[in-house]
Design goal:
Helices cover about 35% and strands about 15% of the residues. It is of the alpha/beta class. It has 2 domains: about 130 residues, Aspartate Aminotransferase, domain 1, CATH 3.90.1150.10; about 210 residues, Aspartate Aminotransferase, domain 2. The strands form 3 sheets. A 7-stranded mixed sheet has the order 2-8-7-6-5-3-4, with helices on both faces. A 4-stranded antiparallel sheet has the order 9-10-13-12. Helix 1 packs antiparallel against helix 8, helix 3 packs across helix 4 and helix 9 runs parallel beside helix 11. The chain is globular and about 55 Å long. The mean pLDDT is about 95. The protein binds pyridoxal-5'-phosphate. The site of pyridoxal-5'-phosphate has 13 residues, from helix 3.
């Protein structure tokens, strides 16, 4: 079909990109999306359902989620004015890249492999993307990162990283941030709940460091609530890009209720998932020729004997209701699978299938 005249105005880089999509899956064990699978206790669900009944559907929510930002400000010991809410941290990624994309050719630096949305969102906005391969242990290559950061605009560092589960050196990250004050570093702690005590959050962080977090990995993925904590100047810039009312009233109310009333239950669910992670690692390690990478997140990466073996394993497990992800599309992850932590019952199923 011939191209319609308006199509010449599409951003040219869109032609090279593939939309992020995960088809809906009804399976016994959905261990492919890095969620927290533990169910909320019944009394929490009942209280949240009651809260939903009070939401005034005809009214807009607060433009910037002030009440939830106040709770987050207290939790992090910082001025809520520095906190910007996103419809998931995916939205924060776009805010940061949009705010900083004013240079002639803005440049994103990311380790590789890492979370795919950094690259996708940057390419949409016309960024050059420099990908710095992780070493064989999936650790940051310090020298290569320093070289790539020269003249760059933004750098995203997920710690722990997805899909590797690696908790990169805090010392190296500190050195990179200090050595490149012209680059804005986004420290993405989406999975930090699974590495207790390892957070690098500091209220007095250097002003080229943006802290990013999400409620998605701690039992609230359905709400789509993420946030950034930035220096006041950058927070104000992000807020100009953010659409008003970007987080729904239902999500604001439920997130605030969980953070203020049901933190103990949430911590228990996280602790259970941390226990199950050890079991998941042990199960994957039993696969002949598998190498399991140490993980500080709720996901585990394993390299199997071959790309074919990885694809066959994923297909066979899926046929029996257990979804894990074949990572072979990434050149550095040929033969790798990523499984997120399941419940005890889900891991029982995985165990019997692996046998
Ligand atoms: C490292 C990392 N950061 C951010 C996100 C986005 O999370 P959300 O948009 O649900 O907050 C993900 C999702 O998988 C992720 O793996």
């Amino acid at each position: 079909m011939s191209e319609a005249p308006w199509q010449r105005n599409l951003r040219p880089q869109l032609a090279e990109l593939v939309a992020y999509d995960v088809p809906p899956a009804q399976a016994f064990a959905r261990m492919h999306a890095n969620e927290l699978p533990e169910p909320w206790p019944a009394h929490v669900m009942a209280a949240l359902a009651e809260l939903v009944r009070t939401v005034e559907l005809g009214r807009y929510p607060d433009t910037s989620g002030r009440s939830l930002r106040a709770v987050l400000g207290q939790r992090h010991g910082c001025d809520p004015a520095r906190i910007v809410l996103g419809n998931g941290s995916d939205e924060i990624i776009s805010f940061v890249l949009t705010a900083l994309g004013g240079a002639h050719t803005p440049t994103l630096v990311i380790p590789s492999p890492t979370f795919v949305m950094y690259r996708l969102s940057a390419r949409v906005l016309g960024y050059d993307v420099r990908e710095v391969p992780l070493d064989d242990a999936m650790e940051l290559d310090g020298a290569a990162m320093h070289r790539a950061l020269d003249g760059a605009t933004v750098c995203f560092l997920a710690r722990p990283n997805n899909p590797t589960g690696t908790l990169w050196s805090s010392t190296l990250i500190g050195e990179l941030v200090a050595a490149h004050p012209e680059v804005v570093f986004v420290l993405d702690e989406a999975y930090i709940a699974y590495a207790p005590g390892a957070s690098l959050w500091r209220a007095d962080a250097p002003d080229n460091l943006v802290y990013m977090a999400t409620l998605s990995k701690v039992g609230l993925a359905a709400l789509r609530v993420g946030y950034a904590i930035a220096t006041p100047v950058l927070a104000a810039a992000l807020d100009k890009i953010r659409h008003p009312y970007n987080v729904s009233q239902t999500s604001l109310a439920l997130a605030e209720a969980v953070l203020t009333r049901f933190g103990a239950e949430q911590q228990q669910m996280i602790a259970t998932a941390i226990e199950q992670r050890a079991r998941l690692c042990a199960l994957l390690a039993r696969i002949p020729d598998a190498h399991v990478f140490p993980s500080a997140a709720n996901l585990v990466l394993a390299r199997l004997g071959s790309a074919e073996q990885a694809a066959a394993l994923c297909a066979r497990l899926a046929a029996h209701g257990v979804l894990i992800k074949d990572m072979g599309a990434h050149p550095r992850l040929r033969g790798c699978v990523r499984a997120s932590v399941g419940t005890a019952a889900e891991l029982d199923r995985l165990e019997s299938l692996l046998r």
